[in-house]
Amino acid sequence: MVERILFSVRLLMIMAYLCAVVGVEAGNAQIWYGNGKLPAMNNNGNAEAFTVDGTVALASLITIGDGHLVKIADEFKTLAARDEVIAGDWQKTKELLKNVADRNVPALMWFALPSGDYWTVEKDRAEANLKSRPYFSRLLAGKTVIGDLVVSKTSEKNVAVVAVPVLKDKKVVGMLGASVFLDKLSGQIKREMALPSNIIFFSFDAQPLMAIDWDEELIFRDPRELGEEVDRAFREMLAKEKGSVSYSFRGKTRDILFEKSPVTNWWYGLGVVQGEAGTAR
């Protein structure tokens, strides 16, 4: 089932990316929600004529966000079949991971053993151990991990984990992993989507913790601690797979479309800050 989902994401990535970027490069954008058209503003604060369906824009956000993580997982799956990785040759595996790092969003690249001991490209053998991580048992069971939110034991930064098992004779002998820096991923998505200033985006997991966010100060925050209205809205989103919600935050109303991704199990939200023609804060 996961493989089918990942395949669908790959097919959608190019189309969704174009949907997200075309309006921006033309200098035009409006978001069209089910009950009406909500104008996005250009840099001069003027409404533009180009219209993008809100669900298309949200799909673009999901496929771009998930796509960065899926791309790393795909590269890891290729590396996991290589003899030097299966043999646990760290020096050769390290060079392979450096190449993956050069082609992807910034992340801490690592290789782990079933014992939980691990090595990183930046520091080689790590002093910490990964065995206590909730995702580790899934890797030992041969499952791919995409999107688990943790504070990195090595960098102490907020990250999303992407990891795949390394198999030998159907037995897990190691793991290839990337701890993707959420602030860097958020910035990358912000640049790629280049949304008008009154359009915001975010994602969060089931805890809930904020994952990516247009406002990097909100990354890894518990949204339920941001006020009663935000608490109500996020509880409503957590109770559904998709839908729309409105709430007030920082003195402005936010109209949000949201949908849960089956790849990362994050809920993604995209919406309009009402009465906001400048920076959406």
Structure described in brief:
The chain has 7 helices and 14 strands. The protein is α+β, with helices and mostly antiparallel strands and 281 residues long.
Estimated structural class: alpha+beta
Strand % is 25-35%
And the CATH topology of the largest domain? Beta-Lactamase
- Please summarize the sheet with the most strands: 6 strands, antiparallel
InterPro entries: Sensor-like_sf (IPR029151)
Protein name: Cache domain-containing protein
Description:
The chain folds into two domains: 2-68 and 183-273, 2-Layer Sandwich (Beta-Lactamase); 84-181, PAS domain (Beta-Lactamase, 2-Layer Sandwich), CATH 3.30.450.20. It is elongated and about 60 Å long. Residues 1-51 have low confidence and may be disordered. The protein has helices spanning 2-25, 54-79, 83-86, 90-102, 136-140, 182-193, 228-238; strands at 30-33, 36-39, 52-53, 107-112, 118-120, 124-125, 145-151, 158-168, 171-181, 199-204, 210-213, 242-249, 252-260, 267-273. The two termini are 38 Å apart. The chain is 34% helix and 30% strand. A six-stranded antiparallel β-sheet has the order 6-5-4-9-8-7. Strands 11-10-14-13-12 form a five-stranded antiparallel β-sheet, with helices on both faces. The chain has a three-stranded mixed β-sheet with strand order 2-1-3. It is α+β, with helices and mostly antiparallel strands. A hairpin with a 2-residue loop joins strand 1 and strand 2 (36-39).
